[in-house]
Write a structure and sequence with these properties.
Blueprint lengths: L3 E4 L4 H12 L4 E4 L16 H16 L3 E10 L28 H12 L7 E12 L3 E13 L15 E3 L11 H7 L1 H16 L1
Parallel strand pairs: 1-2, 1-3
Antiparallel strand pairs: 3-4, 4-5, 5-6
Helix pairs in contact: 1-5, 4-5
Bound molecules: inosine 5'-triphosphate (ITT).
Inosine 5'-triphosphate binds next to strand 3.
Length: about 200
């Protein structure tokens, strides 16, 4: 098995969750902040998988170490799957009208989504995580994970990040932002994708 991997994400909430999930397997996580030279990858593809592969491959080839990268997002049924691959910068895209960036991106994204969902009865949504492992000059593999639930009509809770305060997972009466990190990891899209990825790696290595 691998004992060390660079989790190539600029999102602090994601990084924390990856560290918790991978530490269970004794895998040490390096972050982009530990890297000597800074380097950015633009997410300009149309699918989660293409974006995740692009990030994992470019970081792995640049730093010459094994990398895990993820592209994730929220798909809302009544919005034809939006925000989808645009989840991180939903407030700033033309679809549904741009939302002013008042406090931070997460808050602006939530405000826009709740505006578009005002009076909408079908609140079904799912979180998607596509995780790619890339070992430079060797091999790559990927897994995906989903978490189904419903969009609330107002934000509740202060844990987690992103759209967590407006997402109630199936079978729960609270939002993802009211769950402890352990509870979230058990049911989250990211938790499912990471566990599948480690199982695949354990079979291969
Ligand atoms: P990196 O690309 O650097 O990893 P990012 O924040 O840009 O960081 P993504 O492109 O994967 O990451 O965008 C994911 C967005 O989807 C993220 O900014 C959140 O708004 C949302 N999101 C993803 N996973 C989430 C989760 O577990 N809870 C709440 N929101 C989530």
């Amino acid at each position: 098995m691998i004992d060390k991997v660079l989790v190539a994400t600029t999102n602090k909430g994601k990084l924390k969750e990856f560290k918790q999930l991978l530490s269970k397997y004794g895998i040490q996580v390096l972050s982009l902040e530990d890297m000597p030279e800074k380097f950015e990858v633009e997410e300009d593809k149309e699918t989660f998988l293409e974006n995740a592969i692009k990030k994992a491959r470019e970081y792995a080839q640049f730093y010459k170490i094994p990398v895990i990268a993820e592209d994730a997002g929220l798909e809302v049924k009544a919005l034809n799957g939006y925000p989808g691959v645009y989840s991180a910068r939903f407030y700033d895209i033309e679809f549904g009208g741009k939302q002013p960036l008042e406090e931070n991106k997460d808050k602006a994204n939530i405000k826009k989504l709740l505006r578009l969902m005002e009076g909408v009865e079908d609140r079904e949504a799912r979180f998607v995580s596509v995780v790619v492992f890339y070992n430079p000059e060797d091999f790559g593999l990927w897994t995906e994970g989903y978490c189904y639930g419903k969009i609330t009509d107002k934000p509740i809770g202060d844990k987690g990040f992103g759209y967590d305060p407006i997402f109630v997972p199936e079978g729960y009466l609270v939002t993802m932002a009211q769950l402890t990190p352990e509870e979230k990891n058990k049911i989250s899209h990211r938790g499912k994708a990471v566990r599948k990825l480690v199982e695949k790696l354990q079979k291969l290595l």
